[in-house]
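This part of the workshop introduces the protein records we will be handling. A record pairs a protein's sequence with a compact description of its fold. Comparing a sequence with its tokens is the quickest way to learn the format. To make this concrete, we reproduce a full record directly below:
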Amino acid sequence: MSSVSDTYIENRQRVQPTHTNNYASAHGGNVVKWMDEIGAMSAMRAAGETCVTANIDGLDFKRPVPQGDTCVIESYVYAVGRTSLRTRIRAYRESPRTGERELTTESYFVFVAVDADGNPTPVPELEVAGERCRELRDEALAGEPDESR
């Protein structure tokens, strides 16, 4: 059984010219792709199985990630169902020179664990032990879009 903190993953992507739109900032599709990839890694860490995206809920773009900055993606699983895993994913722009961070995008993704034949498969319970695990879970639950509750 994994804990919430076991599923925490943070990854960085330097925003290159090939990642940008006409305004020299990361194309929204690229940001969502990076979020989906890191979210799936968190889900697989919790499930111990391949996980596929089932739902993206409340995807909010708050500000751009300029070319040359680093896009930092953080993800963790905060709740599980029988075959599903609810994952909180946030993206930040980070200055590569100063490390200054600013939230740019956030969302809640639902992944489903699948077996070798692509059929949904049960996932283990998620342990919420320790202060950090409870903080992450409670923060995610408080921010869930209304239709997710």
In short: Strands lie at 2-3, 9-14, 50-61, 70-80, 84-94, 101-114, 126-127.
